[in-house]
Amino acid sequence: MSEHSEAAGPSEAAGPSEAARSGAVVIGASSGVGRAIARELATRRWDLVVAARSADVLAALADDLARDHAIAATALTLDVCGSDDDLDAFCSTATTVLSTIDAVLITTGAIAARDDGTGAWDDMRSLVDTNLVGVMAIAGRFVSVMEEADNGTLVLFSSIAAEAPRNRNVAYAAAKAGLNAFAASMQHRVNGTGVGVQLVTLGYVRTAMTAGQDLKLPQADPAQVARRVADGLGDGSRTIHEPRWWGLVTRVLRGLPRGVYRRLKF
Length: 266
Known about the structure:
The chain is of the alpha/beta class. It contains 9 helices and 8 strands.
């Protein structure tokens, strides 16, 4: 698959301080949190590469961001589960398009209606590939780019499902737990350099992934998440919970006796 090599831009509108603008790659930008982050960074005058599998949606988004915020915005299609050649080509193109890569934010993720750990292996493998393996593959390539420049922040998006596993979203939770370990390992790798790695652990967020679910706690708005993530870029934070109170919730859940935890319905 080589569809990601087809750039839809850049879409650009003239504006002041062109050389001074920061650059970011937002992967998973076609909807939900990724789309909200792209919009938030555009309001802050970041030049962008927006990426996902939906070429038409991305092209329209890049055009809107460039027109509304006088930035350069380029749409590149990407399947994080693509071949090594595909991922290499995407990284090379993004690096060429942006004069500087100050942040790479990977919001890519997927859930399944049935994910109880007993389903078909192909279905579980697809969840693990999308939520973990593909994210690791593209993230590692951009870490190498950042290390060469001694600059940039990689932002990975996990879930409270990794911190409070339950009897649904089993493969999803396992993949996100693996992502947590990957983030910690990469934080250790870049320690003492100009590169940062942040892990954003999301609670319930009002997106297509949570639509129709019977959730017992409030959902955050994607725009709220995007503002928090943008505020935290480059500030040295290693972990962020959003909404913030989910950090306390997960600490409480982890501290419960196992017998009590097993009886919870959430």
